[in-house]
Amino acid sequence: MSRFVTVGAAQMGPIQRSDTRPEVVERLLALLHSGADAGCDLVVFPELALTTFFPRWWVDDLSEADHFYETEMPGPETRPLFDKAKQLGVGFHLGYAELTPDGHRYNTAILVERDGTIVGRYRKVHLPGHEDHEPWRAFQHLERYYFEPGDGFAVHGAFGGVVGMAICNDRRWPETYRVLGLQGCELALIGYNTPIHYAPDPDQDRLQGFHNRLVLQSGAYQNGMWVVGVAKAGEEEGCALLGESAIIGPSGEVHATCTTEGDELAVARVDLDLCADYKETLFDFERYRRPEVYGAITGQRGPLVPEGIREGRAGESEASNDTGEEYL
Ligand code: CDT
To answer: CB 68: neighbour CB atoms within 10 A?
Structure first.
C-alpha cells in the first residue's frame, strides 16, 4: 500500500531588515505557486519565515521588537497565503514570531491544510543561544531573550498521515524525534535559521552542513519517519546562514535537496507507508524499546555522573553504571 504526499521544501534566501512583510509574503506566494506547479500537496517554509532573524540584535526593551511578531494568524498581511493555499489546494507549514494577546512571545510554526485551515501549531521547545547582551559576539543569538519555550511536541492527523513539527535547534536533540516518533509521527517538518559561525566554538563552523545532515538523517532513520528540513539561507544582514534544505526518508536517505542559497523549492514524492518498513521492523518500539532499563535518568536535565567517576577515579570507584542504580 502507498500513501503519497508530494512535499516541497521551500527554502528562502535571506530576508533583510528593510524587507517589508508584503514583500516577503510575495516571495512565499511565488514559492507556493511553484509548489502547485510541481504537484505539491504541502509546501514547507522555514523558521521565522516572515522576517529577518531578529534575535541577532539586542534591544533594551522587547517592545521595540514588537513589529517582528505576528499578533494574529492569519492577520491582514498573511491572509493572502491562506487564500492562495485554499485556491491552489496546497497546504503549507510556516514559521513566525508569535506575540499572544496576553503578551507571551514564542518562536512558532503552524500547519495549514489544503483548505486553508490551521490544523496544528507548535512553539519551539529548545531555545538556543543566550538571554543577555554579549557584545563580544560578531552577532547576537538572543532567542532566550526574545522567546519563551513551548511546552511540548504534538502530532496532527493531516495530509493523510501523522505529522509533527519542530523548529531549528530542536533538530539537534534526539528527544525531539523520539517524542514525535513515540506518537507515531510519519512526517516531521522542521524550519531552520542556522548561522555558519558559532561564536562559542568556531571550530564547529566548518561542520555546520555535516551536523545538519547528521541530525536530520539519524532522526529520520531512528524513528522511521520522513523529515523535511528547510532553511532560511544566504547572507542575511551580514550573517551567513546555512542552506542545504533537504527531504529525508525513513531509511535516512536524502530524497531531495536544495543546491542554492536563495528561494528554491526541492520536491519529493513522499510515501508515508515507507515508514512502516522501519517502524515495524528494526524500530518496532513496542517490541524492542526498553524504557524500564532507560529509567529515571532519561528525565534528568543534565548529566548525573556517578560519584567516583565524577572525581576522576573511575578505575578505583565502587560506583558503577552497569545497573544504572546510581542514576536513580
Ligand atoms: N535558529 C536556531 O535555532 N539556530 C540554532 C543556532 C545555534 S547557535 C546559537 C541552530 O541550532 O541551528
So the answer is: 22
List the catalytic residue out of 84, 124, 232, 279. 124
Pocket flag, ligand 1, residue 78 (CB < 6 Å):
no
Nearest to 162 by CA among 217, 120, 210, 102: 120
Unique residue bearing C-alpha cell 539561507: 233
Q: In the predicted model, what is the mean pLDDT of residues 5-10?
A: 99
Cα 192 to averaged position of ligand 1 atoms, centre (Å): 8
Residue of 15, 137, 144, 168 to test ligand 1 pocket, by largest number of atoms within 8 Å of CB: 168
Residue 110 grid coordinates: 503552524
Active site residue 275: no
pLDDT 10s digits, 151-172: 999 999 999 999 999 999 999 9
The stretch 209-214 carries a mean pLDDT of: 98
d(C-alpha 117, C-alpha 106), whole Å? 21
Q: Quick check: CB of 327 below 6 Å from ligand 1?
A: no
Cα gap 69→99, rounded to integer Å = 6
Report phi then psi at 267, rounded to 5.
Answer: -120, 140
147 CB near ligand 1 (under 6 Å): no
Q: Which atom of ligand 1 is nearest to the CA of 53?
A: 1
Q: Clarify whether 47 is annotated catalytic.
A: yes
Q: Which amino acid is at 179?
A: V
Q: Give the per-residue pLDDT at 313.
A: 57
The one-character DSSP state at 166 is E
CA 39, 169, 189: angle at the middle one, nearest 5? 20
Residue whose CA is closest, atom 3 of ligand 1? 169
Q: Which three cell numbers stand for residue 257?
A: 535537496
Pick the CATH number of 4-289 from 3.60.110.10, 3.40.50.2300, 3.40.190.10, 3.90.1150.10: 3.60.110.10
pTM: 0.94
Sketch the domain layout of the chain as residue ranges.
4-289
